[in-house]
Amino acid sequence: MSTTTLSVRVNDDERSLLEIAAQHAHTTLSEFIRRKALEAAELELMEQRVVEIPNEMWEQFEAWLDAPAKTNHALKRLATMNSVWER
């Protein structure tokens, strides 16, 4: 897998904070920034609220919504159980 360089501008205080955090994580500054940036990117994408459904799948999606709910026996059993704090 090939890699490329990504430049980020930070002021002296920010760099100092990042270096200290990298030391506490027992890693290099570059690896720390790379890992934290990827974690932030993954979280950003997971929190996405817009769901896009392709036009050709819209009727299938509506049919799925209109279909009667299927019985989930495990969920039904769980709903009848007392909570841990009620035992």
From TrEMBL:
Keyword vocabulary terms for this entry: DNA-binding, Repressor, Toxin-antitoxin system, Transcription, Transcription regulation
An annotated Gene Ontology molecular function: DNA binding
One record GO biological process: regulation of DNA-templated transcription
InterPro entries reported in the protein's UniProt record: Ribbon_hlx_hlx (IPR010985), TacA_1-like (IPR014795)
TM stretches of this protein: none
Gene3D superfamilies named in the record: Single helix bin (1.20.5.780)
Source domain of life: Bacteria
Coiled-coil ranges from the UniProt annotation: none
Keyword Repressor carried by entry: yes
Entry-linked Pfam families: TacA1
Similarity field: Belongs to the TacA antitoxin family.
Protein name: Uncharacterized conserved protein, DUF1778 family
Organism placement in taxonomy: Bacteria, Pseudomonadati, Pseudomonadota, Gammaproteobacteria, Thiotrichales
